[in-house]
Write a structure and sequence with these properties.
The structure holds two protein chains of two kinds.
Chain A: E1 2-11, E2 14-24, E3 29-33, H1 40-47, E4 55-60, E5 63-64, H2 70-74, E6 77-80, H3 92-97, H4 110-122, H5 138-153, E7 168-172, H6 180-197, E8 200-204, H7 208-214, E9 217-222, E10 225-230, H8 232-235, H9 238-245, E11 249-254, E12 257-262
Parallel strand pairs in A: 3-8, 3-9, 6-7, 7-8
Antiparallel strand pairs in A: 1-2, 1-4, 4-5, 9-10, 11-12
Helix pairs in contact in A: 4-5
Chain B: H1 2-29, H2 37-47, H3 55-89, H4 101-119, H5 127-147, H6 157-181, H7 190-195, H8 203-222, H9 224-230, H10 234-239, H11 244-266, H12 272-284, H13 288-312, H14 321-338
Helix pairs in contact in B: 1-3, 1-13, 2-3, 3-8, 3-11, 3-12, 3-13, 4-5, 4-6, 4-11, 5-6, 5-11, 8-11, 12-13, 13-14
The chains are: A alpha/beta, B mainly alpha.
């Protein structure tokens, strides 16, 4: 379980997060929604310990992350950031293998190679495994990095069930460069990953319909505060959407559930 | 695919290792005087209890052999320095000569010769390399301090190159001034400091440069994986468990030390650190684990070839080696600048 306890974080005189408290459960997919500049990415960076709060704390399994070593943290926490540029020509396979860096000392072992192959298959990038990452499109790059972060927090075989180790995956607007097919595909795989590996998964998305469809829990943020948290139908109400996003939603019931149209 | 990626770099590194031995063999045989294989053999035997060496053989042992080995070591230092700087700044256009390290080290060494003569201080064999390191550290630090943007504290590559240019010019004019007031004959040669030469090589300089270059390279090798993680961005490296600030500090220090110590004995030799990693990335890929070893070997090979050219072109006189490396390096530098692939 992941817990944010009364986090306040300021840069200069601007308070980006104000007293944010929330819990995130293992095996569930948690999505954060909110308008631009609301503090979504800031919250993700706090939860992943890239930046540290001035007030409050972030707890992994009840333990304050401030006390964790870099290497230990990297073995259980991965972050998918936006638009990753690589400075030098690097093959897709090498980029995915970086996810295993925290897990091996000198060179990757056979299990690392096997996992990388499987994950490239999973996100559908095996056909360009040998290609230079720099020549890929934004959407292709995003899938490669998805495989990389999965490789970082994938449970290894020698971990037994009597020694469970919780893993944490954070995603900052992972759908940005993906076409509609890959967006849905991505969300499905993310939800499967969370439930299959019992990882704590927290992501930021903009598409409210996708959020409603895939999230186990939604967190609605505005001006550095959590306005509402709960199951999608509890958070995505006409009143809250109007207040937070300044748009007028219409709810349409179809055969596969409720959809929103915005005016 | 994975088998290919595993074996190809190893084969290439092996080829480079063999080539560096071949170049070393050529470099000890040919020069102002050519030594026959019998002479070389007899000279080496005299070291292990054979008959006393003749005059020619003594020249071989005391001038030619240390020069050839120093050349390998300095080339390795410059190659590794270039690779480390490029990995650290995530840009293929940085090298120790361009960001002030080499000229700062040269100024530190020149100051040592002048002040050492005047004040009669610090005559341990480590004094000169330490003076060079201090000069290199100050100049490099100054370049990064001045190149930093006021808004976000980052140094853009354009600013780095321009500031490096200014600090290099400043250091070289200070060296120029020192050469006028110097009494020490070595410090009096401005071409020595600004264009570089290996003609002053002896076993003492070989020993000191060997310690810094080999030690620095081995230390850098331990951080190769972390430097790889840096390729996908500083934030991503942090997420992969890298302490980025510590990594920067260590790599910059290793780079300054190996380059400054080499510069203390050979003067400023530019562009080796630029060309070597560039060629290697095309041959080996961008993995720093292979690049660091490869750039040590290829730096040694390229500088030895440049030294052979320097010794041959005006035989029996010789060219400063920096003229040779610049003649090859400048076109490569311009080519890299003109290429649109890299973002500044």
């Amino acid at each position: 379980m992941l817990e944010a306890r009364d986090i306040t974080f300021s840069v200069g005189r601007r308070e980006l997060l104000s007293g944010v408290s929330a819990t995130f459960d293992a095996g569930k997919l948690h999505l954060i929604i909110g308008p631009n500049g609301a503090g979504k990415s800031t919250l993700i960076k706090q939860l992943a310990r890239l930046t540290r709060p001035q007030v409050g704390s972030v707890l992994y399994e009840g333990q304050d992350v401030a006390g964790l070593g870099e290497a230990a943290l990297a073995r259980k926490r991965a972050v998918l950031s936006q638009a990753i540029e690589v400075a030098f020509p690097l093959s897709v396979r090498e980029v995915v293998m970086m996810g295993r860096y925290p897990h091996f000392g000198g060179s990757p072992g056979p299990t690392d190679h096997k996992l990388v192959d499987e994950l490239m298959d999973l996100v559908d990038v095996t056909e360009f495994a040998a290609r230079n990452y720099q020549t890929l499109s934004g959407g292709e790059r995003q899938r490669v990095n998805f495989a990389r972060v999965l490789a970082q927090v994938w449970p290894s075989e020698h971990e037994t069930s009597d020694f469970p180790r919780c893993r944490y995956l954070f995603l900052d607007e992972p759908l940005t460069f993906l076409d509609i097919h890959h967006q849905i595909d991505f969300m499905k795989k993310l939800r499967d990953f969370a439930s299959a590996t019992d990882a704590v998964t927290v992501g930021v998305v903009h598409d409210l319909n996708l959020a409603a469809r895939f999230a186990d829990r939604l967190y609605m943020i505005k001006d550095g505060r959590i306005i509402a948290a709960g199951e999608p139908h509890e958070v995505l109400t006409g009143e809250l959407i109007r207040e937070v996003f300044s748009v007028e939603p219409q709810f349409v019931r179809t055969t596969d559930g409720m959809h929103m149209i915005f005016g | 695919m994975s088998a290919l990626a595993m074996t190809r770099p190893r084969t290439l590194l092996l080829i480079l290792a063999v080539l560096s031995i071949v170049v070393l063999a050529g470099s000890i045989r040919y020069g102002a005087i050519d030594f026959s294989l019998t002479d070389i053999y007899a000279a080496l035997r005299s070291l292990v209890g054979g008959p006393d060496p003749t005059l020619d053989q003594r020249i071989f042992l005391e001038l030619r052999l240390p020069r050839a080995i120093l050349c390998l070591l300095v080339g390795a230092a410059l190659g590794v320095g270039g690779t480390l700087m490029q990995a650290l700044f995530r840009n293929p256009i940085v090298e120790p000569g361009l960001v002030g390290t080499s000229s700062g080290a040269a100024l530190g060494s020149a100051l040592f010769f002048v002040l050492g003569g005047v004040l009669d201080i610090g005559m341990s064999i480590w004094s000169l390399p330490i003076a060079a390191c201090i000069g290199g550290i100050i100049a490099t630090y100054l370049v990064f301090l001045l190149a930093r943007s006021r808004e976000d504290g980052r140094a853009s590559i354009v600013m780095l190159l321009l500031t490096g240019l200014a600090i290099n010019a400043l250091a070289l004019s200070a060296i120029g001034f020192l050469t006028y007031i110097a009494r020490d004959p070595q410090a009096r040669s401005i071409t020595f400091w600004s264009l570089g030469t290996l003609s002053g090589a002896n076993w003492k300089s070989v020993a000191i440069v060997a310690v810094s270059t080999i030690g620095g390279t081995l230390l850098a090798l331990r951080y190769a994986k972390q430097l790889n993680a840096l390729m996908i961005g500083e934030e991503e490296a942090v997420y992969l468990g890298v302490n980025v600030n510590r990594l920067k500090w260590i790599i910059l220090s290793v780079n300054v030390v190996i380059v400054a110590v080499a510069t203390a004995f050979t003067g400023v030799i530019s562009f080796v650190g630029l060309i070597v990693p560039h060629i290697l990335r095309m041959l080996l890929g961008a993995d720093n684990r292979n690049l660091i070893i490869g750039s040590a070997l290829m730096g040694a090979i390229i500088l030895s070839l440049a030294d052979l050219i320097a010794r041959f072109s005006l035989r029996p006189a010789e060219l400063p080696i920096g003229i040779v490396t610049s003649a090859v390096g400048v076109p490569v530098f311009i080519y890299l600048l003109r290429r649109r692939q890299y973002v500044f």
